[in-house]
Amino acid sequence: MRRDHGTLTDLARALRETPLEAGQVPRFREIARLLHRLPPGRERDGLLAVAYFRLYQLLGQEEDYLKGYSYARTARLEPVRLLGERLGEERT
């Protein structure tokens, strides 16, 4: 990832533009790592939720789903919460 990807706007764009493909797992991990370096807030937590949900979709690891769900709850953003619920229903 380029060095200029450090703001919420840059990271949101990177997350949005990264295809949901197995080869992109390292990129999603890097986006999550960079998001963790930013101060907590609704937008950051919502983006972290999406990053972890994407990782869950690609890898199927329960830990990624649980992290995503936790961040979705703290973000309190309806679209992110709905994504988590949809993925949760697919888990069962």
| Global mean pLDDT | 91
What summary fits the major beta sheet?
Answer: none
DSSP helical segment count: 5
Shape annotation: globular
Q: What is Rg?
A: 12 Å
Descriptive report:
The protein has 92 residues and is an all-alpha fold. 74% of the residues lie in helices and 0% in strands. The protein is built from 5 helices and no strands. Helix 1 packs parallel to helix 3, helix 3 runs antiparallel to helix 4 and helix 4 packs antiparallel against helix 5. The termini are far apart. The model has no long low-confidence stretch (mean pLDDT 91).
Concise overview:
The protein contains 5 helices and no strands.
Sequence-ordered SSE layout with sheet pairings:
Elements: H1 8-17, H2 25-36, H3 42-59, H4 62-75, H5 78-91
Helix pairs in contact: 1-2, 1-3, 2-3, 3-4, 3-5, 4-5
Based on the model shown, name its key terms.
globular; mainly alpha; 92 residues
